[in-house]
Design goal:
Strand order of the largest sheet: 4-5-6-3-7
Oligomer: single chain
Number of strands: 10
Shape: globular
């Protein structure tokens, strides 16, 4: 108790002795709810449970340390108090590990909330240790039965009390308390069965670490609230994966927000883990160290590694103490430790018990291999150093790993120890080539294809050899398609398909390639006539790879045809099916493949002006999108991100995004992607009024358009012409030949039903025609634009004209007969800036206003009678809320409101 303030809630008898151990001294801090810290992030999805506490007799908040249990409980208590409910609070500690003392404190907490409750128990302080817990509980129940309104009691840190003591003190009270008493338990482990077994499921509310974890959106909001703006998508996802939504980890990273710190466990968390481990018995601690070597585990696996008794004891401790463990399936068969805790254990185990660790990993690898869970078997076998055994397993499982989407394992093996051509069979060599191609090792894969072709010669008469020959040809088709060389693809793809000598998995590859060929030829009927993808739920989820590519191709076709809503619906159907297929199993969909439909959805959301939804999809797809080989998806995803950033006046970050995009384009030799990056650079330069830079990029685009290549698609020509039209819009006059060239391309786009490109170019051409040739010349074209935008909702195509005052430009150049309709559509895209400004406090809006007037921090501090440090704090918050990088951008947002 030391220096804490002591207070007695009832008068002592004259003969009483304050120091007597029989008479507890009451700390008012223990029966007062903790004060909430500043800067707590609102979490409506959890806070709304406060309204349900009155419907449940007992509620339990259980999670390891650092998950925000007490913070959430205090928020619940405040909300109940604001609604006029009676609320009591009791914080427990190790000194309360006595039934009578616990009940005495509980009576004091209730008495503080309701003066008519707890007096009988408090009056027996002099002979408290002589009272049976049932007697004290009965006195409380009698007083509680007289309550006329609900009373909610929060009991925090119940894990500090031994289970037997907790049961003896509370089971009688909990089971017999009147209906108006509601109990909320907050702690780090399960409540003893003796307390909760009396209540049915509908009388209990239980929230654990799975619900307390921060979701991706909450993590982003927390970072912004702390004044940190992680790079959109990449760093945020790394942070979410590293922390697994654990608030203690997120706050630790917030204090050290450099990108490298995401990959290292902060010291504060390591100290917390060590403290948790010190509280365990030594033999349990050693078992837990070994479990930290496993990405996932089950009771059966632990029994094999540890023995039945130790495995049962460890699982009991993990569940009872909530030791950062998560169930991976609905049946609670498989489990995983929090990634940071697992890394901490693995490092400690290899440092302290290296030989035992390697023996454990090898045993687990054999266990997984016996059950043909090859990915885990190979990873653990490699970690244990069992290279010969792993080679044997990989020969058994190579095709299975490819078809299940685990091709990255084969590539990892290739890098770990180079497989020579003379020491692996043809079938394994083919599997290696597939793996390298799917993992973007295109040149290495093509080299292996050339080697295989030389070894196989032609199809020959041997059926097995013919099958391998046509599979190698199919692999070559895929590599050409992923390299965007469709002029080479089509003839060979159709020949391979017609040969009919393919596995079902290879057949899906060929159909995907043929679908891409039909799309680039704008042969929409042939595209839709292709057979559907093999069902994912037929026991082999590797077909998920084909489903993602095929559905993304179909969505791309819908977008090009101006059917944005239909494209989004097909992607939603795919994602819903994926959730259904993967919801009950251990495996998770490959994030690289999931990035394809999510990236396509991000672009559609952006087109429709749904910027927040677009940002969510970008956060999920950006870290992985460049690992795939779908050029259009990479282009559209980056376009959505760059244009979102430009709307937020975050031009520096937009340029960094384009740098990354151009690096991918150059590395993969994709002129079309390079052209897309240059087009977006032109747009950014025009927005920033950098005319010379925009002209240089436009000239580079023209060179790319004239480049002879194998992609045979309209992109490069279209982007070059669109950039010239953008520049003409900013110039005082436009050449007649440029307008005629644009109208000719519009006719071509219309003939191919490429309505997305048609609408984007028609917007600029319509405004230019209105300026150069009058409203009558522009009205038919702009009517077509209006019809298309109404149909597909792609309102961003109207506001994305590279001009800082797009709305004013439309008012100036749009024909009078169409102005009201276009103004209505454009108005829907101008709300984000105002909404962001409304999120500022009154003081922050004053600061932004003074910034817009050109005043320095010192001048603003003097005007507002605060310190310059306070202004710095305000500016940090303003930048986070407005999503800007500097003072000038904040001022521009205020002026554009």
């Amino acid at each position: 108790m030391n220096s804490k303030t002591l207070a007695r809630l009832v008068p002592l008898p004259e003969s009483g002795y304050v120091g007597n151990d029989e008479i507890p001294l009451l700390l008012t801090t223990k029966i007062t709810a903790p004060r909430r810290g500043r800067g707590i992030l609102p979490r409506p999805r959890l806070e709304q449970y406060a309204e349900h506490l009155g419907e449940r007799r007992i509620s339990i908040l259980k999670a390891p340390p650092g998950f925000g249990k007490t913070t959430l409980a205090t928020i619940w208590a405040e909300r109940l108090g604001a609604l006029g409910h009676s609320v009591a609070w009791l914080s427990l500690d190790a000194e309360d590990d006595n039934p009578q003392r616990l009940l005495y404190y509980l009576s004091a907490a209730l008495n503080r909330a309701c003066p008519q409750v707890g007096n009988a128990c408090l009056g027996r302080s002099t002979d408290l240790c002589l009272q049976r817990s049932e007697v004290l509980a009965s006195l409380l129940i009698e007083e509680l039965s007289l309550l006329q309104q609900p009373l909610t009691l929060f009991i925090d840190d119940y894990h500090c009390i031994d289970d037997a003591v907790l049961t003896e003190a509370l089971s009688f009270l909990v089971h017999r308390a009147p209906a108006l008493l509601h109990l909320v338990f907050v702690g780090r482990r399960e409540l003893p069965e003796g307390i909760v077994d009396h209540y049915y499921a509908d009388e209990r509310l239980e929230i654990d670490s799975a619900q307390l974890r921060f979701e991706l959106e909450e993590t982003r909001d927390l970072m912004r609230k702390g004044g940190v703006q992680p790079e959109q998508g990449g760093d945020l996802n790394l942070l979410q994966l590293a922390s697994d939504g654990w608030i203690a980890a997120l706050r630790a990273y917030l204090l050290t927000p450099s990108p490298t710190s995401i990959r290292n466990t902060p010291r504060s968390l390591s100290n917390l883990f060590d403290d948790v481990l010190r509280q365990l018995d030594e033999h349990v601690r050693l078992s837990l160290y070994l479990v930290g070597l496993l990405d996932k585990f089950s009771a059966g696996l632990l029994q094999t590694l540890l023995g039945g008794v130790k495995a049962h004891e460890l699982l009991g401790v993990l569940r009872q103490r909530q030791l950062f463990v998560t169930a991976l399936d609905d049946q609670h068969t498989w489990f995983s430790l929090h990634p940071l805790f697992r890394d901490h254990l693995r490092e400690g185990c290899l440092r302290l018990h290296e030989s035992q660790a390697r023996e454990c990993m090898l045993g687990a690898a054999h266990w997984f291999a016996e059950r043909e869970i090859w990915l885990d078997a190979i990873r653990l076998g490699l970690a244990a150093g069992a290279v010969p055994q792993v080679r044997e397993w990989i020969e058994q499982s190579a095709n299975t790993l490819i078809e299940q989407g685990d091709f990255s394992t084969l590539v990892a093996l290739e890098k770990r120890w180079k497989l020579q051509s003379d020491d692996c069979p043809l079938s394994l060599k083919v599997a290696r080539a597939w793996a390298m191609g799917l993992s973007q090792e295109h040149q290495s894969a093509m080299d292996l294809v050339v080697e295989l072709e030389a070894e196989l010669g032609g199809p020959g008469d041997d059926p097995a050899r013919a099958d391998l020959y046509w599979e190698v040809q199919s692999l070559k088709v895929m590599l050409w398609a992923l390299d965007d060389r469709y002029s080479l693809v089509s003839p060979l793809a159709f020949d391979c398909y017609a040969a009919g000598r393919w596995r079902p998995w290879t057949r899906e590859v060929l159909v995907n390639v043929i679908a891409g060929a039909h799309l680039r030829a704008c042969q929409w009927e042939k595209l839709y006539a292709l057979p559907p993808v093999e069902a994912m739920d037929r026991g082999n989820r590797g077909y998920f790879l084909h489903a993602c590519y095929r559905q993304s191709l179909y969505a791309l076709g819908e977008y090009y045809q101006g059917r944005v809503v239909q494209g989004m619906a097909s992607l939603d159907a795919l994602l819903e099916h994926v959730d259904e297929v993967y919801s009950h199993g251990l495996s998770r969909p490959n994030p690289v493949l999931m990035a394809l439909p999510r990236g396509m959805k991000a672009y559609a959301h952006y087109l429709r002006g749904e910027q927040e939804a677009a940002e969510v999809s970008l956060q999920e797809s950006m870290p992985y999108i460049c690992m795939g080989s779908f050029i259009e998806c990479i282009a559209f995803t980056h376009t959505a991100q760059v244009r979102l950033l430009s709307h937020q006046s975050r031009f520096a970050q937009a340029r960094r995004t384009l740098d990354n995009l151009e690096s991918v384009a150059l590395a993969r030799d994709w002129p079309r992607l390079q052209a897309r990056a240059l087009l977006e650079r032109v747009r950014l330069h025009l927005l920033e009024r950098k005319m010379r830079e925009a002209q240089v990029c436009c000239a580079l685009l023209q060179q790319l358009a004239e480049l002879e290549g194998c992609d045979e698609w309209v992109d490069r020509r279209y982007f070059a012409l669109l950039a010239r039209l953008w520049l003409a819009l900013d110039a005082p006059q436009c050449e007649a030949s440029l307008l005629d060239e644009g109208l000719q391309l519009l006719d071509w786009l219309q003939s191919r039903e490429l309505w997305l490109y048609h609408t984007e170019m028609a917007v600029v051409l319509g405004l230019l025609l209105s300026r150069e040739r009058g409203s009558d010349a522009a009205e038919p074209l702009l009517l077509t634009v209006l019809e298309q935008v109404r149909h597909n909702g792609a309102i961003s195509l109207l506001s994305d004209v590279p001009c800082n005052e797009a709305a004013a430009l439309w008012r100036r150049l749009c024909p009078v007969s169409l102005q009201s309709e276009f103004s209505q559509l454009l108005g829907d895209t101008q709300e984000d800036c105002s909404a962001a400004l409304l999120a500022l406090t009154v003081k922050e809006r004053q600061v932004v206003q003074l910034v817009a007037e050109g005043k320095s921090n010192k001048q603003i501090a003097r005007d507002l009678s605060v310190t310059p440090e306070t202004i710095k704090s305000h500016m940090k918050s303003i930048f986070a809320k407005l999503k800007v990088d500097n003072r000038a951008q904040a001022a521009v947002m205020l002026q554009q409101r």
